[in-house]
Amino acid sequence: MLEPAHIKYANPLYGQLIVGPPGSGKTTYCHHAFKFYKELGRRIGIVNLDPANENMEYKAEIDIMELITVQDVMDSMHLGPNGALMYCAEFLEEHTEDWLLPLLNKAKCNYFLFDCPGQIELYTHHASMSHIFERLQRDGYHLVTVNLIDSHYCSEPSKFVSTLLMALNMMLRMGLPHVNVLSKADLLKRHEHKLKFSLDFYTDVLDLNYLLEALDDSPSLRKYKKLNAAICSMVEDYSLVSFQLLNVRSTESLLRLRNHIDKANGYIYKAGEEQSVNTLLACAVNAETEVTRQNKDIEPYM
Ligand SMILES: Nc1nc2c(ncn2[C@@H]2O[C@H](COP(=O)(O)OP(=O)(O)OP(=O)(O)O)[C@@H](O)[C@H]2O)c(=O)[nH]1
Ligand SMILES: [Mg+2]
After folding, report:
1. pTM: predicted TM-score of the whole model, two decimal places
2. 248 lines ligand 1 (CB under 6 A)
3. Partners of residue 19 on adjacent β-strands
4. DSSP alpha helix (H) spans, the chain
5. pLDDT tens-digit profile of 160-187?
6. Which Pfam family is one of this chain's hits (predicted)?
7. Which end of the chain is more exposed for a tag (fewer CB within 10 A), N or C?
């Protein structure tokens, strides 16, 4: 018999899908965010969906490596690492009903951090991961994609253009509430001399003409002028991409990112945590003076 819809949503379930290129800080974020959210009193657990995750600092509530590992697939099927990862994703999809969902239901959590593999093809060219996420949504999970991108990519205009394209592509493919994050922002000070613009230029993505001019300064990139102009114009037309900054070891930084994520997945409105009307309204309209934002988001990293 079908469950009445109101039962499914009476105890809302939440999930952050932590994605991003290899080495961008996904596993480290899961470790620190887990401790941070736990202190806030949330019933949180980490689900490791990366079948090649060797050095996890956290203890996963659910670990795909107990189901399948990239190494086993490489050995037994004579595949390379990328082919083996695709195989693992398909295997996980096949076992969503009889492995993943029962374990999620058994866990004493209602908020999950999904530590996902970094290979971007899994999200842009392959359907298994998106089928799994769709299945979770059908079970009532309020999902948000948290896309971590190393802030080092701000250090060169050409890298930043590819970052913008990658972020937009991911947003459109995932089709979920989405928060783009420039990770390891504490290291930006080291690259400060390489940044051509102030930091809010990179986070707000408002006027990319300056970026185009900077690209044209480089003789090797000048021949791609039209291509870069088309990419920048597309990113501006969609007007979807912006970034939050994250230093995973700073509580203040985790707190600010949490505010964005809570708004994106609707946690702030539904989770039943005590919220004053003022907090809800402030969150809804993003009420914060530019000075506050500069002080809290930009200054610490410059
Ligand atoms: N300074 C600094 N280093 C960080 C931060 N977040 C992650 N790192 C470092 O970045 C490196 C890669 O982090 P991981 O968490 O393994 O990255 P990942 O995205 O899980 O990598 P894959 O699973 O291989 O795709 C580690 O050495 C982390 O300590 C941060 O906020 N600041
Ligand atoms: Mg990892």
Report:
1. 0.91
2. yes
3. 147
4. 5-10, 26-39, 70-77, 81-94, 101-106, 121-124, 128-138, 157-174, 188-191, 199-204, 209-216, 219-222, 225-238, 251-264, 267-270, 277-285, 290-293
5. 999 999 999 999 999 999 999 999 999 9
6. ATP_bind_1
7. N
CA of 42 to the centre of ligand 2 (A): 23
Q: Kindly give, in sequence order, each residue whose CB lies less than 8 Å from that of residue 33, ignoring residues fewer than 6 positions away.
A: 16, 113, 248, 254
pLDDT per residue as tens digits for the range 47-76: 999 999 988 899 999 999 999 999 999 999
Residue 150 near ligand 1, beta carbon < 6 Å: no
Residue with the nearest Cα to atom 5 of ligand 1?
184
Tell me, what amino acid is at 51?
Answer: P
Please list all protein residues whose beta carbon sits less than 5 angstroms from ligand 2, which is an ion: 26-27
CB atoms within 10 A of CB 92: 20
Query: What is the C-alpha separation between 259 and 86, in angstroms, rounded?
Result: 34
